[in-house]
Amino acid sequence: MSGIQTEYGRDWAVDRILNGDAEPELQYVALGSGDTDPVEGDTALEAEEYQASTEDSNANIYKVADLPGTYRVDITVSGGVEVDSDTSVSEFGIKTADEGLVYREVRSPTVISGGERISFEIEVELVNV
User: Can you give the chain as a three-state secondary structure string?
Assistant: First the structure.
């Protein structure tokens, strides 16, 4: 498993610290099937399969109170509903409300069969937040 805060993510974090900007908020959690290692210049998942907003019931982004700049993120999907049956999920992304990619991670693939419901969770520290 490898993950990286993107250049956009670093700029977003610095802007929040220096200017006190609360916008754009972290709002989207995305899953993909790409397998290329993440790099700071990433602007999107390699092969996005699904994206959910924190306004949806299956995606959450929580700020961890005791750990500055740390977020706990989770998303739950069902094969044949949010993603096609037998989708291989190996990418995880966190995006702002304007869909800027703040963080991208590549994991070992998890295949989601038809009717199967799977939750993914990650805890990430975003630098300079």
Answer: CEEEECHHHHHHHHHHHHHCCCCCCEEEEEEECCCCCCCCCCCCCCCEEEEEECCCCCEEEEECCCCCCEEEEEEEEEECCCECCCEEEEEEEEEECCCCEEEEEEEEEEEECECCEEEEEEEEECCCC
